[in-house]
Each structure stands twice: as structure tokens, then as C-alpha cells.
Write a structure and sequence with these properties.
Pfam families: Phosphorylase. The protein is α/β, with parallel strands linked by helices and 840 residues long. The protein folds into 2 domains: 365 residues, Rossmann fold; 253 residues, Glycogen Phosphorylase B (Rossmann fold, 3-Layer(aba) Sandwich). Helices cover 49% and strands 15% of the residues. It contains 35 helices and 24 strands. The protein has a 9-stranded mixed β-sheet with strand order 7-10-11-4-1-12-13-17-18. Strands 21-20-19-22-23-24 form a 6-stranded parallel β-sheet, with helices on both faces. The chain has a 3-stranded antiparallel β-sheet with strand order 14-16-15. α27 links the parallel β23 and β24. The longest helix is centred in the N-terminal third of the chain and has 30 residues. The termini are close together. The model has no long low-confidence stretch (mean pLDDT 95). Bound molecules: ligand 26V.
Length: 840
């Protein structure tokens, strides 16, 4: 049966002629379109994109199966990354580059008279995340596969991802993100992989034959979870891992119940409602809202994933459930999946019949938890009442975990009732609530923060008591970003300059960038580096002109702040600097300062009033400045609409200055800061999150640090911070605040920005914008000074690139693998003998 082997070779071939034939075949037989121009059924670029994606997916599929087979046969320890968000972005070019197929595919497309760039842009992006936490999960998937680690992502297949943002009259307007409209060519729908998820109902207890107390969760309203699998290729294309996302499907029970009653409409309605569960990503990463649908989403994907993991464990491996922690590690991406802890307990107790102590030991050794924020308002707590109604069996287990835990605490600290109250998993004040972060800590063997300062603050502030109770549990693992997407893919010009200088090994070993250091003193290299930056700015300018009709001057400094809009990230401080510059230029039109183009972008949570008003302020300030001829040759402001992964990939390579200006102690890590450093931008930033480590790596002379330290901020508020002191002490700041507060930028509605003025001056300026203003302006003039000398600027920028190797997510993932998961690489053997046997 050699024809089967030929078939395999054909589907795996990247011979250009074979690719062309495959493209045509896919267009005809999978998409159902005619490659010859016909009327009235037009063949569009999207059709060709879909065909292309399928041809590529075909060529990842065997490697993917080989990878899975290798893990299974090797019976290796594996890690499951549970995350409510995977902010992947577009896949086509990334996978082509990782697989090493780009040139062949590009040639095939061109020889067929098409343009790869046009096809590439037809792909909708997978925006299944809010921001940093979701994008980190996507970088981790890339690194796990590149490091040949047996790692699996588990999440939700939202039908609507992060909303699409448009700006109308300066205001943010949200529209649903219909990314699946034209289908998703990357996923495999596993119509046979289903798990049943229980909700509501009640719990019955009885004694089993041995007199053990047993629980049954009865009369539940169930939803089915159906799997969709997406192959995740690592760099080099050897290891291809799997991301499994769950979609909600109605059970057949509904059919029985209502169809038999003859109520067809009701039956379909109930069916639809149960499938709503996985419809939409929650777009608010600011405040925990305690919404029932959110808890249902969390439990739905957690229960499906754990059932799936246990099934995989029983099929492979040792079969003894006690061995679970030796073969499986599960990482909780923030508290969102932390209901996994009582859920695993439920499966072990109720389904496997284990006794409590055994089950608890297995659970703690299996889980670990990453915290991503110190903001108290973002910490999840669920009303006991809600849990009681929705997941009654889990609430009982949480109570029991709490009982055991608090008993241990009182044994260790007899009489410290206040400690017991503080660390209880149940917050008894003002309506009883379950504290999910505490549950995650108690049920994990490792808890990590995402940058040095963050991990330190975690242990001295929000989790202080727990750090004392479990000193060995808390560790730091600083975040990273994947150099494949964030340099090789998004910045081809810089990537190729680097490769010409030091070879291509940096792509899978970013520490190699160190070899660029000597070139920072090579004038010819600096000229080339500047030419690359200039070319990137020109292509951004062209794109912005085409899409928005806005002119950006590529000779200006591109001063870029892109991230979610949040008070703590202080986009206001940025805009206050812009207004100050505007005032200085108006007062002195001949002022000698380098031209700046200030670019901001980011989404505000739909319910976050102040953040939305900040967007409006940025746009109103931009209108005023951009239409004032006396300043417009020196200063330009642009708010980039709909900031997402694709736009980030366009903005980051062109940035000269990276704005990382959160109040010290508030940004857990930041990852945009790393991406911009890697792409040769200089950072202006506070000593917050990973900025601190960026400074350590690049050197203090190659970064612009300003503002109060976390400790000084703490002191400031402890002593009683009065923003009015700063208002009166600085005339320029006063002028800015008065202009904003009195309608200079909103003549038709002078009170529009009063809420911002009030937040700062009457509400205590929670994020110390006023206190850091002066120091920010000093740093900004240092930036101007350096920018006047392109060679000196380029030298520092090159040093930033050369010293950014630490911020690869490969390094991060290797730390998780060795310090938490204890998983090791599984090197692909390239052995396809199994398949050959089958073919023969
Ligand atoms: C919180 C919530 C609250 C409930 C509703 C939905 C929702 C969605 C997301 C979040 C988490 C926000 C936390 C977050 O994204 N943290 C960011 O994590 C990055 C990766 O570690 C880090 O670089 C950023 O500094 C940090 O803000």
C-alpha cells in the first residue's frame, strides 16, 4: 500500500509545485471556489487565505501527531496551562516562520500571481484575551513548543473575543468581535470529545459500605463541553503542541424534557441559553464584578479540562491516581481557574473514592498558581450564596478545605484569632464571599509573582500572612515575551540586520543578542540600525495615512504608550506632558525641541467611566494640537484605534521611546516594556514591575528612570498625600490642570473633563500623577537632549537590544519547568516508523 505513504509525503511536502497544486485543490475541494475568475461566485482573497491556511495546517499535522505520540509513548510528565485567556493574534505568518516554510509558501503564492501580504491580512485575529495576562499565555505556548516541553493549553473558545474599538467623535465605541464569521482554519473540532459539566442541583450525603461519608451531586442542570484543538508549532517546526479550547453545547436532556412536553420553542430556547456560556470574553480586567455568567464560564472550562486531564492520565501512565503529581503539573493563570482546586478534590473524593487526606495531598502537589495583579479591586471573590446555588458540591468542599486549613493555623498559632479571621477562605464581612486567591494559595505547592518587585510586594502586602504560613511556597519568575512573534515576525528588517551581524541562533536562544554589544560602538552598524528604525517608521506612517488619513512624520521621535487604559498606568501623566509641551511651544514658537509624534493606544473596559473619559481627553487634546499650525510642526498626537496584537506588531518596531510610567508598585510586570526594549526603543519609566529588571539588564545610563519608588509612594500616602501641594508648587502643572478642568480642550462642553480634575484634586490622586509630574518632565527633557544626537541615541538603543535576552519567554518557561513543574524537554526523534508500519 505504498500509495498511502505517497499520500503522506504529498501532504507533508513543501516543494513549491506541490504547494501550488495543494492550494488549488484546497480552494476547489474544501472552499468550493473556482480558481478561474467566474461570475457570479467571486473567488476572494479570503478564499485564498483559507486555502493557504489549510495547506499549512496539513503540513503541521504530522509533526503534531508525532509530538503527541512521543509524549504518550514516553509517558513523560506534562504540564497543563489553565487560562481563561489566550491572546494569540494572527497565526499564518507566525506559523510559516516557526515551521521554516515561509519562503516556499511565499514563492508558491507569488507564482500564482497573488501577494502574501494581501492574503495574510485576510486573517481575523484570535483576540481571546484582555491584555498582558492573555498575551503572556500565548507567548508561553510558543516557548513551550520551542523548548520541546510537553505543555498543553486549556481555555475557552469564545465566539466573541475582545470587543473591537472604534473612536467616534473622540469617544470609544465597542462592537462585538465576530472573529469566527468566516470560520477558523486552524482548529480541529473534536465532535467526539465531550465532557459533562454539572450546575445547580443539590448534594446528598450517605455512608458507604465502609462507613465513609460520601457525597452525590444530584438533579443538576448540565452543559456539555466540546473540544476544539489548535496545533501550536515551536520554532524549528519539530515540536507541535496542542491548545484545547472548550465550547458549550446543550445536553440531550433538554431535548427530552421539553420536546416531550411538546414545547418545541421553549426547548430550543433553553438549548440556546446553555450554549451562551462560552459566547463572550469578559472585557473588564479592572474590577471583579461577581457576575454569575463569569463564574459559570470558570467552572465550565475548569471542570472540562480536569476531566480531560484525568482521562488522559488513566489512559496512559501508571493508572494509580496517587501518581498524579508525578505525571501531571497544572498551572493556574491567576485565580480565574482556581475553582480547579475544589474540583479536583471533588473528582478524587466523589468519583475515585479517595479519602480526604490523600486527595488533598495529591491536589496540592499538582497545582501551582501565578498571581498577576496586586490591585485589590481585581482580586476575585465569589458570594457564598452564588456558589451555593451554582456549584453546591464545590462550596461544601471549599468549607472543608477551610476547616482543615484554619485548624492547622490555630494549631500553629494558638489564640491568634485575628490571624484566623484574616486568612480564612471565607470573608465574613459584608455578605460572605469566597476569597479565590487564598484558595489558590492554600491548594498549590508554588505561588509565583511575575517580576521581582511584584513578587516581593505580594509577600509583604496582599499575601503577607500566607507568606509567613508557607515561606517556601512563594517564588518569583519574571515574565518574558517570545522573540519569534515580537522580533523575528513583527520586525523582519531588524531581525535580518541582527542575523547578518551574529547569525540566527538568537531566535531560539535570545541571550545570544549579547554578541551585538561591541557593535554599539561601530558607526556603520549604528547607521544601519537607524536606517532600519527609519524604514519601520516610514511603513507605519504609510499605513496610518492609508487607513486613517493621518500624517505621521517619520523624522519625528515616535513616543509610544500602548496598553489597556487604566488610571494606574497613568496615560494622564503622558497627556499632561504633551499639554505642557504644547503650552511651551505656544508661549515660544521658536523653542528648540526635537519634533515628537506621541502615539497612544488601548482599550478601556466598557464600564470604566474614568478610563473612557481619558480616551476622550487624549482625542480632544490631539484635535486641538494637531489643528494648531503654530505647534503642529513640532508636536503631533495620535490615538491609535482598536489596539490589538496585530496593531502592536505594527507599532512596536517603529517606537523610539517606550512609555512605561505606571505608579511604582502597581504594574505587576508589564510585557510591552520588554517588547519595545527588544525592538530598540529606549524606555522612559518608573521603578515599577519589570522596568526595574530592564534597568538592571540594559544599564542605568541606557534608560530614563523617573518618579518615586514604590517605597516613596508608600511613604507619601502614609504621611497623607495632598495633591494640592503639587498643584500650587508648579505653575506649569497648575496651568495643565486648569486647562483640562476648565474646558480648554472641550470648549463646547467646558465641564466634560471635570471628573478627571476631581479625581486628581478632590479624590486624592490615587496614582500620584501630580507627585511624579515634575520628575517626569525632567526625564522628558533628557530624552529630548539625547534624541538631538542620533548616533548617541542609536548606541543606547543597540545596547537595549543586545541586553534584552533575559526577557525571552523561553527563559521564563525554562524557569517554570525546572522550579515548579519538574518537566523536561522531549526531543523529537523524527522517528516516523510507526507511520511507516501503518502505511505498509
Ligand atoms: C482580571 C479580571 C477580573 C474579573 C473579570 C475579568 C478579568 C480579566 C483579567 C483580569 C486580570 C488582570 C490582570 C492582568 O492582566 N495582569 C497583567 O499581567 C501581565 C502578565 O503577567 C503583567 O505583565 C501586567 O503587569 C499585569 O497588569
Amino acid at each position: 500500500m505504498s500509495s498511502q505513504r505517497d499520500f503522506l509525503n504529498e501532504v507533508d511536502s513543501t516543494d513549491v509545485e506541490v504547494l501550488k497544486q495543494a492550494l488549488v485543490n484546497r480552494l476547489i475541494y474544501s472552499i468550493g471556489k473556482d480558481p478561474v475568475e467566474t461570475f457570479p461566485v467571486e473567488t476572494t482573497s479570503r478564499d485564498w487565505f483559507l486555502a493557504l491556511a489549510q495547506v499549512l495546517r496539513d503540513r503541521m499535522t504530522l509533526r503534531w501527531m508525532e509530538t503527541m505520540r512521543g509524549y504518550y509513548l514516553g509517558n513523560v510528565k506534562r504540564v497543563y496551562y489553565l487560562s481563561m485567556e489566550f491572546l494569540i493574534g494572527r497565526t499564518l505568518r507566525n506559523s510559516l516562520l516557526n515551521m521554516g516554510f515561509y519562503d516556499e509558501f511565499n514563492q508558491a503564492v507569488e507564482e500564482m500571481g497573488m501577494d502574501m501580504e494581501t492574503l495574510r491580512l485576510m486573517e481575523e485575529e484570535a483576540g481571546l484575551g484582555n491584555g498582558g495576562l492573555g498575551r503572556l499565555a500565548a507567548c508561553f505556548l510558543d516557548s513551550l513548543a520551542t523548548m520541546h516541553l510537553p505543555g498543553f493549553g486549556y481555555g475557552i473558545r469564545y465566539e466573541y473575543g475582545m470587543f473591537s474599538q472604534s473612536i467616534e467623535h473622540g469617544y470609544q465605541i465597542e462592537r462585538p468581535d465576530t472573529w469566527l464569521r468566516y470560520g477558523n482554519p486552524w482548529e480541529f473540532a473534536r465532535t467526539e470529545v465531550f465532557h459533562r459539566i454539572q450546575f445547580r442541583g443539590h448534594v446528598a450525603a450517605h455512608r458507604d459500605e465502609k462507613g465513609q461519608l460520601r457525597h452525590q451531586w444530584l438533579d443538576t442542570e448540565d452543559v456539555m463541553a466540546m473540544a476544539f484543538d489548535t496545533p501550536i508549532p515551536g520554532f524549528g517546526g519539530q515540536t507541535v503542541n496542542n491548545l484545547r479550547l472548550w465550547a458549550a453545547r446543550a445536553t440531550r436532556d433538554f431535548d427530552l424534557k421539553y420536546f416531550n412536553e411538546g414545547n418545541y420553542i421553549k426547548a430550543v430556547d433553553v438549548k440556546n441559553r446553555s450554549e451562551n456560556l462560552s459566547k463572550v470574553l469578559y472585557p473588564d480586567d479592572t474590577t471583579e464584578m461577581g457576575r454569575e455568567l463569569r463564574l459559570r464560564q470558570e467552572y465550565f472550562f475548569v471542570s472540562a479540562s480536569l476531566q480531560d486531564i484525568l482521562k488522559g492520565f488513566e489512559v496512559g501512565g501508571s493508572h494509580s491516581i496517587e501518581k498524579l503529581p508525578d505525571e501531571v503539573a497544572i498551572q493556574l493563570n491567576d485565580t480565574h481557574p482556581s475553582i480547579a482546586i475544589p474540583e479536583l478534590m471533588r473528582l478524587l473524593l466523589d468519583m475515585h473514592g479517595l479519602e480526604w487526606g490523600k486527595a488533598w495531598d495529591i491536589t496540592c502537589r499538582t497545582f501551582s498558581y501565578t498571581n498577576h495583579t496586586l490591585q485589590p479591586e481585581a482580586l476575585e471573590t465569589w458570594p457564598v450564596k452564588l456558589m451555593e446555588a451554582l456549584v453546591p458540591r464545590l462550596l461544601l468542599i471549599i468549607y472543608e478545605i477551610n476547616q482543615h486549613f484554619l485548624r492547622d493555623v490555630s494549631n500553629r498559632f494558638p489564640g491568634d484569632m485575628d490571624l484566623v479571621r484574616r486568612v480564612s477562605l471565607i470573608d465574613e464581612e459584608g455578605g460572605r464571599r469566597v476569597r479565590m486567591a487564598y484558595l489558590a494559595i492554600v491548594g498549590s505547592h508554588k505561588v509565583n509573582g511575575v517580576a521581582k518587585l511584584h513578587s516581593e510586594l505580594m509577600q509583604t502586602t496582599i499575601f503577607r500572612d500566607f507568606a509567613k504560613l508557607f515561606p517556601d511556597r512563594f517564588i518569583n519568575i519574571t515574565n518574558g515575551v517570545t522573540p519569534r512573534r515580537w522580533l523575528n515576525h513583527s520586525n523582519p528588517a531588524l531581525a535580518s540586520l541582527i542575523t547578518r551581524a551574529i547569525g540566527s541562533e538568537w531566535k531560539a536562544d535570545l541571550s545570544r543578542l549579547k554578541q551585538l554589544e561591541p557593535l554599539a560602538d561601530d558607526p556603520a552598524f549604528l547607521r544601519e540600525f537607524l536606517a532600519v528604525k527609519r524604514a519601520n517608521k516610514e511603513s507605519l506612517a504609510e499605513l496610518v495615512k492609508k487607513r486613517h488619513g493621518i500624517e505621521l512624520d517619520p523624522t519625528a521621535m515616535f513616543d509610544t504608550q500602548i496598553k489597556r487604559i487604566h488610571e494606574y498606568k497613568r496615560q494622564l501623566l503622558n497627556i499632561f506632558h504633551v499639554i505642557t509641551r504644547y503650552n511651551r511651544l505656544r508661549a515660544n514658537p521658536n523653542l528648540d525641541c526635537p519634533k515628537r509624534c506621541v502615539i497612544l493606544g488601548g482599550k478601556a473596559a466598557p464600564g470604566y467611566r474614568i478610563a473612557k473619559l481619558i480616551i476622550k481627553l487624549i482625542n480632544d487634546v490631539a484635535d486641538t494640537i494637531n489643528s494648531d499650525p503654530s505647534v503642529s510642526s513640532k508636536l503631533k498626537v495620535w490615538f491609535a484605534p482598536n489596539y490589538n496584537v496585530s496593531l502592536a506588531m505594527e507599532l512596536i518596531p517603529s517606537a523610539d521611546l517606550s512609555e512605561q510610567i505606571s505608579m511604582a508598585g502597581t504594574e505587576a510586570s508589564g510585557t510591552g516594556n520588554m517588547k519595545m526594549t527588544l525592538n530598540g526603543a529606549l524606555t522612559i519609566g518608573t521603578l515599577d514591575g519589570a522596568n526595574i529588571e530592564i534597568r538592571e539588564e540594559v544599564g542605568k545610563d541606557n534608560i530614563f528612570i523617573f518618579g518615586k519608588t514604590a517605597e516613596q509612594i508608600h511613604e507619601l500616602f502614609r504621611r497623607g498625600y495632598n495633591p494640592w501641594d503639587y498643584y500650587y508648587a508648579n505653575a506649569e502643572l497648575r496651568q495643565v490642570l486648569d486647562m483640562v478642568g476648565n474646558g480648554h480642550f472641550s470648549k463646547e462642553d467646558p465641564l466634560r473633563f471635570r471628573p478627571l480634575f476631581d479625581e486628581l484634586l478632590h479624590n486624592g490622586d490615587r496614582y500620584a500623577v501630580l507627585a511624579d509630574y515634575e520628575s517626569y518632565l525632567v526625564a522628558q527633557s533628557e530624552v529630548d537632549g539625547l534624541f538631538r544626537n542620533p548616533e548617541a541615541w542609536a548606541r543606547k538603543a543597540v545596547l537595549n537590544v543586545a541586553r534584552s535576552g533575559y526577557f525571552s519567554s523561553d527563559r521564563t518557561i525554562n524557569e517554570y519547568a525546572s522550579r515548579i513543574w519538574e518537566v523536561a524537554p522531549v526531543l523529537p526523534t523524527g522517528d516516523i516508523s510507526v507511520l511507516e508500519e501503518w502505511a505498509d
